Amino acid sequence: MRYKLLASDFDNTLVPFGESCPRPAVVQAVKKLQVAGGKFVLSTGRGYCVINKKHLGGIRFDYAITNNGACVVDQNGGIIAEHPLTNEEMYALVDFCEDYNYPLQFDFRDGYYAYCEYETFKNFYAQLGGSGLTCLDGEDQDRHLIDMPHAAFAYLPDGAVEEFNKKYGHLNLHFMMVGSVSDGGWHCYDIVREGIDKGVGLADLCEKMGLTLADAVSAGDSANDIGMLKAAGLGCCMENGSEDAKEAADRIIGDVREDGLAALIEELWFDGPRAEPSGNDLGSPWGQMESVEEKQ
Predict the structure, then answer these.
(1) Which entry of 58, 109, 216, 224 is 20 to 30 Å from 7 by CA?
(2) Half-sphere exposure of 214 toward its Cβ, with a 13 Å CA cutoff?
(3) Which residues sit opposite 82 in a β-bridge?
(4) CA gap 47, 89 in Å, rounded
(5) Phi, psi of 184 (to 5 degrees)
(6) In angstroms, rounded to a whole number, what is the distance separating the alpha carbons of residues 296 and 288?
(7) For residue 30, how far is the Cα from the chain centroid?
(8) CB neighbour burial string for 93-132, b if at least 16 within 10 angstroms, e if fewer
C-alpha cells in the first residue's frame, strides 16, 4: 500500500454543502479503506468540541486535524499535538475587538467561548440549525485561566485586519477569511498563530505516527486546505473547489456531488480506475453566511 492515510476536509469534500452527512458511497469507501489498514483523518477548521459525529454518517475517523492545524487529536479527543495562542496574542485580539464591538470567539478544548458580542454568535449559530456549531457566553473573559485557546473566530468589516496589523502586526497572526456576509462588507475569519495551517497539523500527525508526508494523501476544496494540499505526498482538490486550491493541488478529482472522494479511495487503495473529474464544476457558494459552516 503506497499511501498510509487520507486527510479529508469536511464540507464540500467529504459532505456536499446543504447535506447533513457523507453520501453512502463515500461512507462505504472510507470504511473499506480503514479495513484495509489505511487511516482516515478528518481535517477541519472546527475544534474537536463541536465536531458532530452524527454528521459523519457512521464514519469513525482515526485522527482529526482541528482548528486549521492548531490541534491534532486521536479518535477520542486526546491531544497529539497543539499550537495554542499565547496570552499576548489573545489579549491583542480582545483589546482590538472590544474597542470596536467586533464579535470575537475563542476555541477552547471544551467549547467555543464568545468573549465579545456573545448575542451575535448565539443568534448566528441558531440560524445554522443542525450544524452542530454552538458557543458559550465567555464575556466574563476568564476561561483562558484554565488553558489557552487553540484558535479564534471573528466577524470583521472591510479593512479591520489591516487596522489590527497596524497595531499588532508584530504578532503575525494568521487570519483566514472563511465566509462573508452578502450585504454589508463584513467577513468571517478563523485566526491561528503564525505559520499554522492544516499542512502543519498533517506534518505533526505524520511525525507522531512515524510516517513521512509522502505517505499521506490530502483532499480539500478551498483556501484553508491549501497548506495540506501542498504538504501531502499527493494533494487532491475537488472539482468543485476554489481556483487557489486547485492551483495548490497535485491533481483535480471528481465533484463532491459525484462521490469524488470515494473514487479516489478506490483508485489509490484498491487499483480502481483513475478518479477523473467530469467537468461539471458546481463551485463553492462564497458570499453566503452558510459558507462559514464549511470552513469551520
Answers:
(1) 109
(2) 1
(3) 71
(4) 19
(5) 175, 0
(6) 14
(7) 19
(8) bbebbeeeebbbbbbbbeebbbbbbbebbeebbeeeeebb
Quickly count: other Cβ atoms within 10 Å of residue 288's Cβ: 14
**Integer Cα distance of 264 and 13 in angstroms:** 12
Per the listing, cell 467586533 goes with 102
Position of cell 458546481?
282
Enumerate residues 6+ apart whose C-beta is below 8 A from 94.
Answer: 104, 115, 116, 141
Each residue of 100-154: pLDDT tens digit? 999 999 999 999 999 999 999 999 888 876 667 889 999 999 999 999 999 999 9
Count of positions (residues) in the chain = 296
> In whole angstroms, what is the distance from residue 3 CA to residue 14 CA?
19
Question: In a 3-state reduction of DSSP, which class is residue 52?
Answer: coil
In angstroms, the CA 33 to CA 86 distance is 38
289 band by pLDDT with thresholds 50, 70 and 90: very low
**Contact between 223 and 242 (Cβ < 8 Å):** yes
